[in-house]
Amino acid sequence: MVKxxxxxxxxxxxxxxxxxxTSPSAQTKLSLKAQEFVEESFRLGYIQExxxxxxxxxxxxxxxxxxxxxxxxHEYAQEARAIKELLCPAYKCFxxxxxxxxVDVILRQIQKKKDKLYLSExxxxxxxxxxxxxxxxxxxxxxxxxxxxxxxxxxxxxxxIHSPWIYFELQAVQxxxxxxxxxxxxxxxxxxxxxxxxxxxSRLTKNFLPIxxxxxxxxxxxxxx
Length: 225
Prior knowledge:
Blueprint (H helix, E strand, L loop, with lengths): L4 E6 L2 H4 L15 H13 L4 H8 L9 E6 L5 H11 L3 E4 L1 H4 L3 H9 L7 H25 L2 E6 L8 E2 L2 H15 L7 E4 L6 E5 L1 H4 L3 E2 L2 H7 L6
Parallel strand pairs: 1-4, 1-8, 2-3, 2-4
Antiparallel strand pairs: 5-7, 6-7
């Protein structure tokens, strides 16, 4: 497999200030098809994982364009969509929230049934949902030619993040590029009223190429040389 190009871009006001033509938010409502499927799963007493995964995580068709996977903190979803919109004429960009926004919606729906479910059953549903999401993310990263990590602006420590999903994505692209074993570096932070996981990403991003907003604008007009 050809190594993926890895970029790192700091979120900035140029991105936030763009007027987006695309939808301003991810899917926040459970589609009728997904809702019916979940209800049927409760009636049957089991989950048909393959069918549900196809509903929740549709795989985009190949367009012949180079594919960019955009990894971003949740609070910078608007900037991620701005990058997608900027580059979409020349590239096929993937922002997971734009197509896979229903997992948390399903889990909230399941929580509403908690008076009918044991805690272990709720946890089992969550485990299934996140396992399917992890597999879908791996497929998209594997299909991508370029991995772009949108880092938090003005972070006190750019090498520490708190999102397990970003950490998972950075680990995945490292694995695809190096074919080496990956290891977790985790510490509990005491800065909040509850234990928060700290993820050290310094070794995962050390080989990423810094990219600027100006360069993104140039790339939007054509492919990489």
